[in-house]
């Protein structure tokens, strides 16, 4: 079974721009969660989607948004980028939203200049 | 305020010895706990978990202990191997909106010397 894939792996943007990151979960997995990892804050939960519905949201501003498609693929969007948005963005999938074990992708490294 | 704390940013251990990684939490609503391992340039991989109804769970060389009264859990790796060198994240979950949302600690970097 193929693992969780994320594209692109690396991205460089400038302040004020917007960015869209993509995640393809493991086949058959319906839950996709997004995390932001920074050296100072560790792994922080952004949001979770299950069957195309946002089920939970972390404590991030509205500039961070996401969606999930009928094939369970998910995208997250960050608008009006700030320097502090530079981070590794990780996507994780699981077969049901009640299952605790998540499978992570390799992440997208976003650098905002 | 951090709800899940891994107070040791790094740990160095000799091959063959025991590695003990610690994690403390503050939210009494957490009822499921997990450990993940992360190698550079890869996403975290699930290692082992424990429900709050248990105080110990073993999987091969890995054992997780949970002390609910102290709000403390630990991961024991015996014997430690150089391939265990990685960053270990502790995560604690509470049920929200029909799913479990994990809160992660900031990680402990384990180095196992040959």
Can you walk me through this structure?
The complex is a heterodimer of chains A (113) and B (114). Chain A is an all-beta fold and 113 residues long. Chain A has no helices and eleven strands. Chain A has strands at residues 5-7, 10-13, 19-24, 31-38, 42-50, 53-57, 64-68, 74-78, 87-94, 103-104, 108-112. Chain A is globular. The model of chain A has no long low-confidence stretch (mean pLDDT 92). By secondary structure, chain B is mostly beta strands. Chain B contains no helices and eleven strands. Chain B has strands at 4-5, 10-14, 19-25, 32-38, 45-51, 56-59, 62-67, 72-77, 86-96, 99-104, 108-113. In chain B, strands 2, 4, 5, 9, 10 and 11 form a six-stranded mixed beta sheet that branches. In chain B, strands 1-3-8-7-6 form a five-stranded antiparallel beta sheet, with no helix packed on it. Chain B is globular. The model of chain B has no long low-confidence stretch (mean pLDDT 93).
Question: Could you outline the blueprint of secondary structure elements for this entry?
Answer:
The complex is a heterodimer of chains A (113) and B (114).
Chain A: E1 5-7, E2 10-13, E3 19-24, E4 31-38, E5 42-50, E6 53-57, E7 64-68, E8 74-78, E9 87-94, E10 103-104, E11 108-112
Parallel strand pairs in A: 2-11
Antiparallel strand pairs in A: 1-3, 3-8, 4-5, 4-9, 5-6, 7-8, 9-10, 9-11
Chain B: E1 4-5, E2 10-14, E3 19-25, E4 32-38, E5 45-51, E6 56-59, E7 62-67, E8 72-77, E9 86-96, E10 99-104, E11 108-113
Helix content of chain B: under 10%
Total of DSSP H or I helical runs spanning 4+ residues of chain A: 0
The overall average pLDDT of chain A, rounded, is 92
Detail the poorly predicted runs of chain B.
none
Strand content of chain A: over 45%
Number of H- or I-type helical stretches of chain B = 0
The number of strands of chain A is 11
Label the overall shape of chain A: globular
Q: Report the biggest beta sheet of chain A as strand number plus sense, adding barrel if it closes.
A: 7 strands, mixed
Q: Roughly what fraction of the amino acids of chain B lie in strands? A: over 45%
N- to C-terminal distance of chain A: 37 Å
């Amino acid at each position: 079974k193929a693992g969780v894939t994320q594209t692109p792996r690396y991205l460089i943007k400038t302040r004020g721009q917007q960015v869209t990151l993509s995640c393809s979960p493991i086949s058959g997995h319906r839950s996709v969660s997004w995390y932001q990892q920074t050296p100072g804050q560790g792994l922080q939960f952004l949001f979770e989607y299950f069957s195309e519905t946002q089920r939970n949201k972390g404590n991030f501003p509205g500039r961070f948004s996401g969606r999930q498609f009928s094939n369970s693929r998910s995208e997250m969007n960050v608008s009006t980028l700030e320097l502090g948005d530079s981070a590794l963005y990780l996507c994780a999938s699981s077969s049901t939203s009640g299952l605790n074990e998540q499978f992570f992708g390799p992440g997208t490294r976003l650098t905002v200049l | 305020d951090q709800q899940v704390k891994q107070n040791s940013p790094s740990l160095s251990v000799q091959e063959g010895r025991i590695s003990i990684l610690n994690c403390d939490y503050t939210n009494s609503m957490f009822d499921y706990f997990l450990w993940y391992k992360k190698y550079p340039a890869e996403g975290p991989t699930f290692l082992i978990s424990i429900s709050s109804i248990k105080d110990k769970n073993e999987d091969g060389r890995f054992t997780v202990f949970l002390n609910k009264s102290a709000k403390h859990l630990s991961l024991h790796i015996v014997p430690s191997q150089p391939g265990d060198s990685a960053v270990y994240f502790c995560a604690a979950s509470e049920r929200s909106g029909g799913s479990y949302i994990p809160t992660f600690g900031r990680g402990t970097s384990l180095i196992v010397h040959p």
